[in-house]
Each structure stands twice: as C-alpha cells, then as structure tokens.
Amino acid sequence: MKAVALTQYLPVTNPDSLMDVELSAPAVSGRDILVRVEAVSVNPVDTKVRAPKEKIEPQPRVLGWDAAGTVVAVGDDVTLFSVGDEVFYAGDITRPGSNSEYQLVDERIVGHKPQSLSMAEAAALPLTSITAWEGLFDRLKIDPDVTQDQKSLLIIGGAGGVGSVAIQLASQIAGLTVIATASRENTQRWCDEMGADHTINHRQDMAAQLAELGFPAVDYIFCLNDTAGHWATMTQVIKPQGMICSIVESDVPLDMEPLKSKSAGFIWEFMFTRAMYQTDDMAEQGQLLNQISKRMDADSLQTTLTEHLTPINAENLRKAHAMVEQGKMIGKIVLSGWE
C-alpha cells in the first residue's frame, strides 16, 4: 500500500522529512477495523512528533491522527461496524497513523462519518472535535444537557481547529456566553462566524478587555494557546470555584498558588489518553464522534475545513506541516485522494 512515512526526524524543508513509501497492508484482528483512508488532516501534534530530534527509526514510521474512509475488513470481535461503513476518527498515537492507504484502528474510538459531509470535510473534524468535547464536558465538567446561559467561557485561541469546534459546542449545546480570543482581523471574524458572543485579542491585556465587556471574571477557561504565557491572566480572571483546562504543554512549572484562595481548579486535556491507556471508558470517543456526526447532519454544526490539498503524498504533507508550523492556521487543512 502507499504511505507517507519518516525514518529520521528532520526539518520539514528537508525532502526526507516525509517520504513516499510502499508498505505491506496490515492484517485485521480482534476489535480492530481496517479502513481504506480517503482523506486526512494535519494537526499540531503531527508537526511536534515529526520535529527534529536525534533518533532513527529502524522501519518507516507513519504519522497522521485524523482520517475519514471506508471499512474494508473487520476483526473477529468487532460489533460496531461492518464492511462498507464510512467512518471518521483520530486514532491512537501509539500505533501507525493515518497517512497510509489502509489503517488499523480500534472500533471503540471510531465514529460513523456524517452523511452530509464529504470525506475531506469529515477528516477535518475528529481530533479537534474529541479534544473540544472532552475539554468542555469531561474535563471542565460542563453539563451538555443543561443550558448554562448565565455562565461564561473564555476560549484562548479560538480560530484554530479545536477552538473552532469548541466555540460551536459551548454556544450551541451548553448555551454558554462564549468569549474567544484571536489576534488578527481575519481570525476574529472567523471566531464570530463560529458563534462566539465576543472576541478579544490575546496579544493585548485580556483582563482589561474582559472587564470592558462586563466580565471581570469568567466561570470557565479553555486554553488552546501558550499555557505558560497566559497563566497569570488565567489565574487572575477565573472566578472563585471556577475551572481552567489546557491542551498546551508548559515548558515551565505552573504556579498553582493563585488558585488556592479561589478554590479554583486546573486540569489537562489530552485526547489520546483513552486509547493510550486503554481506559474502561475508551468507547466514549466513538460515541461522542457519533454525536458530532448527528449534529453535523442536522446542520447544527459546521465543518472547519479551510485548506484542501490533493493528492495525499509526501510533497503535499510537507506543505501542510509547514503551514501548521507557522501557527497561523484558521480552521483545518485536509488532504484527500491517492495518486
């Protein structure tokens, strides 16, 4: 099968950073399904894993953690899918990725593709939708079944893939007052289009901007950009008994002391946790993807695809990685089709 892989961890400008290769198609067993991959998306995690380091892979390593495709075979223990089903998923960071014609994935972390979306539109959604859903409803403990129009949520970094979905989920499902941050005119406009009630600039004094809007403090914060850089502001503006969640690792220790007097909390969100540790609730990811799919088909949510390249090959994946590494993406970049 065709695939794009690496054996060395190199700058994306190096042609050997991602290479076209031929690999053997994997055999299916257990709870795995074998998917013919038809579209993939590129996320910051792809570029972080590929980033230069002193390591050589003895066999080509396939990256990629977002895909849409069709089931072509199922393991003996599979109960949720049949051959011919169209699916979408983010996968498992401990296993070979989606940048190949065929991929094995555990059925529990797979959802049925929205019927109303193309493969490319669907491939833009899994990783960001899972991250946004888990961050809001599992980590911040926002109740998706109760409208919370008296409570406020600050999303730091609203125009990226996760932010684009989080704005929609928070406003449409939870009914929260959503304040997103964006630093450019086009990204501010995008946040507004996604459904943010207010948009402020995270490169300026966020506390002052929030106060001007009538929010000297907020109930929840979802940090999708520079946790350490925004930490002082987050601990300042979080309400007593409020909650902060971040998806961005910090290269310095975070000072938890400012949260103590407020009885406020902080929690991480990492969407690979359930698959990585084979948690008892691993199937929640498949179920939440099905929820996303239903809402897409009901036209209550919209895809976040903004850039589309074809075909899926090393050259285009290097282009996509370079675009993501610039840190200025709005929405998601997707590749589809094989030559």
UniProtKB/TrEMBL annotation:
Molecular functions (GO terms): oxidoreductase activity; zinc ion binding
Matching InterPro entries: ADH-like_N, ADH_Zn_typ-1, ER, GroES-like_sf, Lipid_raft_assoc_Zn_ADH, NAD(P)-bd_dom_sf
Keyword annotations from UniProtKB, A to Z: Metal-binding, Oxidoreductase, Zinc
Domain Enoyl reductase (ER): 13-335
Transmembrane segments: none
Keyword Zinc-finger: no
PANTHER family, per the entry: PROTEIN AST1-RELATED (PTHR43482:SF1)
Family: Belongs to the zinc-containing alcohol dehydrogenase family. Quinone oxidoreductase subfamily.
Protein name, entry field: Zinc-type alcohol dehydrogenase-like protein
Native source species: Photobacterium halotolerans
